[in-house]
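Notebook entry, structure prediction.
Reason for the run: the old model in the group folder had no record of what sequence produced it. Starting over properly, with the input documented here first.
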Amino acid sequence: MLRLAIIASASPLPGVQSRRASVSGNLSSPSETPVSDRQTAAIADAISFFRFSCGRWRSQRSSHHLLHRQAEAGSSYIEVVELEASDPQLVAIAELHGEDPANLAGGCRVRWSGSMAWDKAGEAHEGESVFGLIPTDALGREGLLLRDRGYAETAPVAGRFAMDQRDALLLTTAYETMNSLERFSFAGPNVRLRTSTVEGLSNTASFCIETRIDAPAGSGGGLLAEISAVAAGSSGVVRKSDSVSLLGW
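New structure, fully documented this time:
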């Protein structure tokens, strides 16, 4: 049973054509095509991967604190919205990192709200992050990923992204006191897998299974407000998370 589950999770998206047959050597252009239609196309480059990730997700998370030899469960709701390369938020991030905004391929805004098993009564995690992609190869499968806040630290940070042969997205980020590695992949159009490790002062490893949530377009504000209220509990206390992943807390 376990072996079959692992094989299934590594399978490409249903109906996905071979990337090698479809990559033309150019970045894919922004598309107005609905997500359900775009899911039949190959994940040719990183910006296409992020477009597949746009929408609302429910995440189940297991974090392993290696120093304490203990595991902690958690859950969150995540919303990913695509931003055009010309979006003022992306332009500002590029300039903040000393990069030319003209090299941006696009980006996303991510909002999240969640909780962990070790939270104190009434505590929750919520926030948002914006990131932009600057490809450094002709296929758009490698490059810089600029963020307004990092995974292990909340200051602005630049990492590197690369896509492997299975069209999974890898992100590496070096901080002053630690390094992080994240891997994102699709087990199907509506199931995304995420692993992350942080090495340094705090050594942790996390695994997430995320499922897409069907919700009316434009309802993100109300949805996130409702999620925050539930996660905060009766006291309404909400705190910012110190670990911000690429596509959600």
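Summary: The chain has one domain: 41-232.
The old model has been moved to the deprecated folder.
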